């Protein structure tokens, strides 16, 4: 979308330079904007080189008459096109003196064909009043193409004087028509206090396509700032943006923007009705996977509810194992999002996710455990334990040993609901003696230890055997509770061993 916008703008500028209807140049629409701009500048350079001698003579003649007389001659005899052509050949102070005697209407006509590259010194000397008058005239004509070209080149001081004469919606159009998109950050920094008004005007007048194109030209900091401003407005405005993004199929623009938004803005974005639509969510996931925007999707996905994550997870599960491996590797530091996404997978997809070798790597598992502890994501993380192979238990046992006491207790508290108490105990049995002693003590001191032990129901006798082998390490209360539970599970032999304690 943005590329076609810039191509159309360059064709319009080329049309003005050649004094030909834009429709005559439509055959150039397949060329990239950079090529069209280079072509336009070559034309300007050739015309200037061809007319250089005549311009020098004209400029020299301008020195011989008073500025007011030179202005009258310029306006009556030369016309705006020639005046624009010789502007860079005249001494800047002299050019400004002559321009001061010209009408704002004529100066605006001059600006239409003025090449800022050749008149940079003159532009830098323009008085505030003249800049304001020319801006007011161009804006009254809605000549955003010329305003966008000049806004790219003029100094900040000139823009600060000119922009207050623009209505809020004018600011959007000027930004949309900037000749050099890289100047968008600079323009936005000069109108920060007017962003709410610009956003309201954009929504009221239905100009979201232009705003989205402008977003795509901003650097990460400014575009995220603008997106946060949008998210802070009334929900009707946020809904207007989302509707436009969907209609224009511009999620490849919005996802990178959302990636840098603040938490509050992301939460408001995720809560909007359009973001509950499975079709939209599937489309977003598809774009993220096919346009290398996976890491840009994760900050938004972190704030999606489980039902919203289901279509996202379903789309991800269609990828082959090598792609899934790459996605996990790229998101290794984003387990706070990967856990909920994995949990949203269908059972078969979840099993496949947990079977990938990349998930079994020690650094992956260690990072996952640390993330679950840091973000208190045990309810999301623990359901995956049961589908990890036992070959990962030694690594997990080491990782759990490094947890602070409160994180370990939080994991125990979440285990019953996740139906993974048995797996957690199996992992704890793999710990070294010192770490296991701490784990057993924390278990014994757990507030609802009776309810926790009641969810310990291993059918594998080797687990009961492992507990009996360390029964002398078990705190008395915990050992007695396990003995009762063993009997409940029909493991009488092990119940007797645990009861004896020796």
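^ Assign residues to that structure.
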């Amino acid at each position: 979308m943005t590329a076609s916008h810039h191509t159309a703008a360059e064709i319009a500028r080329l049309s003005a330079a050649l004094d030909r209807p834009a429709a005559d140049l439509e055959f150039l629409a397949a060329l990239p904007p950079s090529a069209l701009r280079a072509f336009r500048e070559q034309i300007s350079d050739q015309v200037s080189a061809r007319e250089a001698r005549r311009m020098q003579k004209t400029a020299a003649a301008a020195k011989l008459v008073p500025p007011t007389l030179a202005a009258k001659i310029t306006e009556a005899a030369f016309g705006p096109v020639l005046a624009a052509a010789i502007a860079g050949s005249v001494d800047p102070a002299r050019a400004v003196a002559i321009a001061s005697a010209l009408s704002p209407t004529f100066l605006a006509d001059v600006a239409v064909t003025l090449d800022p590259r050749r008149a940079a010194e003159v532009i830098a000397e323009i008085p505030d009043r003249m800049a304001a008058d020319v801006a007011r005239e161009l804006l009254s004509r809605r000549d955003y193409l010329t305003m966008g070209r000049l806004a790219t080149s003029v100094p900040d001081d000139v823009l600060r004087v000119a922009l207050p004469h623009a209505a809020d919606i004018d600011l959007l159009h000027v930004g949309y028509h900037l000749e050099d998109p890289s100047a968008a950050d600079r323009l936005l920094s000069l109108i920060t206090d007017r962003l709410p008004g610009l956003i309201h005007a954009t929504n009221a007048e239905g100009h979201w396509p232009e705003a989205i194109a402008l977003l795509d030209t901003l650097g990460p900091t400014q575009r995220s700032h603008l997106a946060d401003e949008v998210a802070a407005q009334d929900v009707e405005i946020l809904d207007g943006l989302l509707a436009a993004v969907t209609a224009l199929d511009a999620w490849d623009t919005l996802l990178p923007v959302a990636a840098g938004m603040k938490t509050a803005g992301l939460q408001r974005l995720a809560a909007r009705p359009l973001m509950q639509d499975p079709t939209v969510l599937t489309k977003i996931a598809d774009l993220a996977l096919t346009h290398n925007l996976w890491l840009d999707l994760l900050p938004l996905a972190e704030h999606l509810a489980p039902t919203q994550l289901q279509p996202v997870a379903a789309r991800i599960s269609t990828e082959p194992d090598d792609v899934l491996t790459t996605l996990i590797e790229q998101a290794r530091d984003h387990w706070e999002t990967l856990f909920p996404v994995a949990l949203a997978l269908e059972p078969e997809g979840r099993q496949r996710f947990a079977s990938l070798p990349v998930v079994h790597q020690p650094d992956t598992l260690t990072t996952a455990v640390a993330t679950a502890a840091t973000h208190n994501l045990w309810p999301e993380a623990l359901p995956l334990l049961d589908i990890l192979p036992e070959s990962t238990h030694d690594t997990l046992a080491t990782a759990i040993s490094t947890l602070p006491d409160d994180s370990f207790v939080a994991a125990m508290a979440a285990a019953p609901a996740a139906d993974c108490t048995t797996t957690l105990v199996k992992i704890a049995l793999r710990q070294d003696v010192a770490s296991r002693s701490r784990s057993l003590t924390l278990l014994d001191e757990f507030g609802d230890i009776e309810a926790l032990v009641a969810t310990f129901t291993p059918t594998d006798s080797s687990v009961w055997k492992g507990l009996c082998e360390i029964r002398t390490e078990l705190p008395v209360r915990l050992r007695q509770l396990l003995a009762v539970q063993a009997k409940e599970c029909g493991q009488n032999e092990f119940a007797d061993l645990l009861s004896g304690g020796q």
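The chain has a mean pLDDT of 86.
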